[in-house]
Amino acid sequence: MTNTSPAVKADQTKLQAESRNATKAQFLEFWYYFSQNKGAVIGLVIFSLLVLMALFAPLVAPHSPDFQYRDSFLVPPFWEEGGKAAFLLGTDAVGRDILSRLIFGARFSLFIGVVVVTIALVGGVVIGLVAGYMRGMTDTLIMRVMDIILAFPSLLLALVLVAILGPGLINAMIAIAIVLQPHFVRLTRAAVLSERTRDYVVAAKVAGAGHMRLMFKTILPNCLAPLIVQATLSFSNAILDAAALGFLGMGAQPPTPEWGTMLAEAREFILRAWWVVTFPGIAILVTVLAINLVGDGLRDALDPKLKRS
Amino acid sequence: MFRFLLGRLGLLIPTFFGVTLVAFSFIRMLPGDPAELLAGERGISDERRAQVLSQLGFDKPLWHQYLDYIAGIFQGDLGTSFVSKKPVLDEFLTLFPATAELALCAIIIAVCLGIPAGIFAAVKRGSIADQAIMGTALVGYSMPIFWWGLLLIILFSGTLGWTPVSGRISLMFFFPQVTGFMLIDSLLSGEKGAFLSAVRHLILPSIVLATIPMAVIARQTRSAMLEVLGEDYVRTARAKGLPPRAVVGLHALRNALIPVVTTIGLQVGVLLAGAILTETIFSWPGIGKWLVDSISRRDYFVVQGGLLLIAGIIMMVNLIVDVLYGLINPRIRHN
Amino acid sequence: MNFQKTLKASLLGVSLAVIAATGASAKNLVYCSEGSPEGFDAALYTAGTTFDASSKPIYNRLVEFKRGTTEVLPGLAESWEVSEDGLEYTFKLRQGVKFHTTSFFTPTREFNADDVLFTFERQLKKDHPWHEYTAGTAWEYFEGMSMPDLIKEIVKVDDYTVKFVLNRPEAPMIANLAMDFASIVSAEYAAQLEAAGTKDQLNQQPVGTGPFTFVGYQKDAVIRYAANADYWGGKQPVDNLIFAITPDAAVRLQKLKAGECHIMPYPAPADITDIQSDDTLTLMEQQGLNVGYLAYNTKQAPFDKPEVRKALNHAINKQAILDAVFQGSGQAAKNPIPPTMWSYNDAVEDDDYNPELAKEMLEAAGVKDLSMKIWAMPVQRPYNPNARRMAEVIQADYANIGVNVEIVSYEWGEYLSRSKDENRDGAVLLGWTGDNGDPDNFLAVLLGCDGVGGSNRAQWCNEEFDALIMKAKTVTSKEERTKLYEEAQVVFKEQAPWATIAHSVVFMPMSSKVTGYIMDPLGGHWFDGVDIAE
After folding, report:
1. ipTM higher than the 0.90 cut
2. What is the pTM of this model?
3. Are residue B158 and residue B115 in the same domain, yes or no?
């Protein structure tokens, strides 16, 4: 999986073909190990379904997520006494169809995961590369800042950040990304430290590659495996934390059908209308579980040390 | 060893000052202020508001406020709560035992169930039991615990009526706080039924708080055990004909537990974050709920002091784990 | 230090146990209160929870509200006179009133004018030795009611006559003096504390003239009072009054059902039906002295046109709000003052729910494709249990008539200050709870021209309306004031600066054995005259 040597420039086409083949072989190997893990495949299937559901929410959902049926406040699910077939999972306190809100809610949760992981990953990788590559004062400074962030419980820090930025979905995502980022920094830095003295890096340096090229083109691709595993982990953490913030009233604001926010709104009905409390939680659990299953599979397939255990 | 310890402590100092700076600047960035909040719909005159802010010392230049704050820390003075007018440290010390009691019970549950489950799964690798345990652990690991708490309340407090909805003990009981741990105090008080009442209040919150650490510990124990079981000395022990129980108990377990101890230490941060949600759901009068309430009340010095104290605890625990790990595993020390 | 605290706490525990043991014949009334008092000198605070535990059981005022009404009766003042120009109020004080004798204070003289002067001058005069006697507190209500600007001086005419001189006429003055901040404290006790150098004790160990004597307070747990045997209004039917502090509504109800307390405030709305079906409990209810409203910004186009505001009012389905948000514990509002208040104009007709009409009215006003913001408070208030949900219902109602709504919210302190801005974008959900039962306290504060840029969130200044309420301030005849306020409500309804939404209903569950409890329209909790049937 190492990079093809950049030294020979003569036969570029051949080289490219070779590297394409190598990538393909790598992927096949990865897929082989990944598909060995049944849980991971199930997780991937559920996750894909969730993505499809989110993409085609307007087609799948039986009702508009915001429409209030004024004659149907707190209708129980269809199998309960008093339930209506029109509202499969019942309605909430202002008569909105819970199933439709859950389907549209998938959009928000997946969106949160993607955005948070992208911000945390890109930010964390760049900072980590710089720290590991530059060493010295820069490194020390960066790592102390990361220590400071990690010294606070993540949810508490996110809570304070959202209080400063103002409650809302976007601000919640920013806060969570900041809180998750140090993990990427540490991981990248550690990988860079172990890679930078390797032969291929030294060779590239000797060949006159610049700092940017060394950091991003030479070293980074070789640190990808742990980063991918961490990214899946962060994806599920982001969804959980955003839901927790929503639950504390600091995340997405009503009437956004975000799952955590729906739970917060449902809290007062806990002993009276179990369905408004139960279903959003199941949605969160299933989504996070699917992503974690995929994450376990990725780790097994990518981490050579654990591969055959 | 001494040098190692010194080095670790040396790292803590800049982090500590960084934490003070973060706590300090955060509360100055929070929009809104407590004077406005207390006045409510009635409103407050600009003059009175300025007076309140100056009582809080907010009219001084920033660097001056910061120096005052640092000087205060070294004298054990973290300021005074705007709402209760009590010193922040006093409030923290009265509420901390509630969180500590909850967290301790949770970690005991997590360890007592997580480690045996992990060992069992590793020993029976690939069996139905292994898959069931690891499946359950992954569900626990993926659990939104605020919802889990609500679900348990619906079932045990609502439908079955077995446990109370919130609080630490039935308010029928009035007795002095000696240790701050309700389980111990209720026994000391000698009041009939007090201990039982405290247990019934504690059970659901600790289960909720234990869920994620338990899952993490079980998974970690399993993979550590698997790794160790594959090592040469275990194979040798097996080859020597030692009974499997002795192999697992004597050789494998001891070595496998090293990384697990680290994991347990790292769960302290998770527990404190979890306590914020758990305490909110169960109206548990601990520091998690205290901080959440104080953020929404803009009780500046409580937020500032509370952030610092919690960060301090996490840093101390991390240091202890580091040192313990260094003691057990000499390789780390020179790294 | 901790040991001392513990010792104190355990001593209190022992004394409680002794009282409980010897008090087989003693009648204890236990009230499961919702929170801890901030202190016992009521004038320093604004929270009802604090007043319930301090000013109401322990103290008296010059004038008192008649239980269950906002009508004013003589209290420590037997009678009063108002001068022709409305600037001088002369009070004749009651003679033979004794302050409490407690373990920490024994009075040597009876209540007189010195106590009245001390009570008010410490709040009025910045150089008074008691003006800043506890750190970090202020005379919040006294200042909030603009008393420092209003009162010119307070004169002791003789030992039993006191004269208040005002800078301008203020008709609600008498009602103001029945409020909690005007509770009369003992000047003699204060002098004793000052001599001992323990001024703070005035806020910790209170001495008053009221129906109950303070016995002890164990923080966040229990407050004890004993009936004042020498009370000028006669000894109470119960011997001891106990506040068991229980913040959780569900727990309060459990304790009430278990017989651990006799009365509880603020049940959870979801528990109301359960309480009603319980034979051992009585559920009293009363309309709260409050109003929840949606204030348009009348300085912002197109909301500067009354027709537009009126049209939007017709689009709101109040019944849906009462069902979804109040869940039965509310009542639709048509006037800016609650129905329990005198001068409430029942002849005013509400804007009915009529989306068709609303659409037509908007078209007639030339408004198309209207987009607006609705501000929703982040907190629960007595007049609005869930502002966000209310905003969502209104959002859906407005969508029905083609008006697009964006819901915005800020942190509560921010919300209050930002919503005052005259250039505020959008209509704001807010409300008000009455202080003294005077309509002026609603109409002038919330809708007067002086309040624009401040407590008048509609930024509404209407000459006709303002003239009416300003006149009502200076007239002392209640009949005349009633007429003026009734007329003002008609103007309000025509101009529609607000959509009036609801008044909440307050519930008070208690054991069926409790007799003589009367609900206070001002939201306080009084225990004088309450008895327990055996």
Report:
1. no
2. 0.82
3. yes
